[in-house]
Amino acid sequence: MATVREIYQLLNTLAPFSIQMEFDNAGFLVGRGDQAVDRILVSLDITEPVVSEAAERGAQLIVSHHPVLFHPARSITDGDPTGRILLALVERKIAAICAHTNLDTVAGGVNDALAHRLDLVQIEPLKQDGVDASGRPYGIGRIGNTVGAPMYAPAFAAFVKRQLGANGVRYVDARRPVRRVAVGGGACADLLSDALALGCDTFVTADVKYNGFLDAKALGINLIDAGHYPTEQVVVPVLAKWLSDAFPKVEVFATDRHKEAFSYG
């Protein structure tokens, strides 16, 4: 048994909420800090089906990556999706802790999980954004090397799709063998030039705009857009393990109801 506050304190130690980006709204967002918790549901997002799943499975807390409440709310009613989610959480006495950009940047977080899922080795930061209060460096993105015979973009894109369970990927083939790879979970296409400057031949990220693909083609770097959900979903088992290891008497489980929101035709 643990309290919501104790679980928040653990996450704040591993991925300090103080290092979240200015636009973000990560933290303890819904519930009472002294609420007892013996079951935790972990999910990338908190949606209505996820709240229903937590209630059905007896969870008192949901830990997610994306904040359930991102923008200031002028009202909380059942007239919009966010309002319905917040009402359902409060009515069912389910708390919510959301670790977002702080989890993107810390060691062992989203980007390390993504690099490991793609079997990269000799992993290092793509960009250092600062150091936390304990002096630990943090930053967005990671760089690593592939092992074995190098693949070219079409084969590596197929590998990325398989490893991440993506419904599809979009890519630019610069006709360079894949040896040194940068990764940025979620929308990190603005780091393309950083990846190139650090000697990367390939960049795996998500939410790439049309001009991003044109830039990659002109710059001669392989660019793979594997989708926001697949490139960040890799952190869900990491969060679950952190919580299970720290609170062995608490049952921790990942959602089996939240999936990719769209399909490719």
From TrEMBL:
Keyword terms: Metal-binding
Top-rank lineage group of the source organism: Bacteria
Family, as annotated: Belongs to the GTP cyclohydrolase I type 2/NIF3 family.
InterPro entries reported for this sequence: DUF34/NIF3 (IPR002678), DUF34/NIF3_sf (IPR036069)
Pfam families: DUF34_NIF3
Binding residue positions for a divalent metal cation: 65-66, 104, 228, 232
PANTHER family named among the record's database cross-references: GTP CYCLOHYDROLASE 1 TYPE 2 HOMOLOG, NGG1 INTERACTING FACTOR 3
UniProt protein name: GTP cyclohydrolase 1 type 2 homolog
The keyword Metal-binding belongs to this UniProt entry's keyword annotation: yes
Molecular function in Gene Ontology: metal ion binding
GO cellular-component term (any): cytoplasm
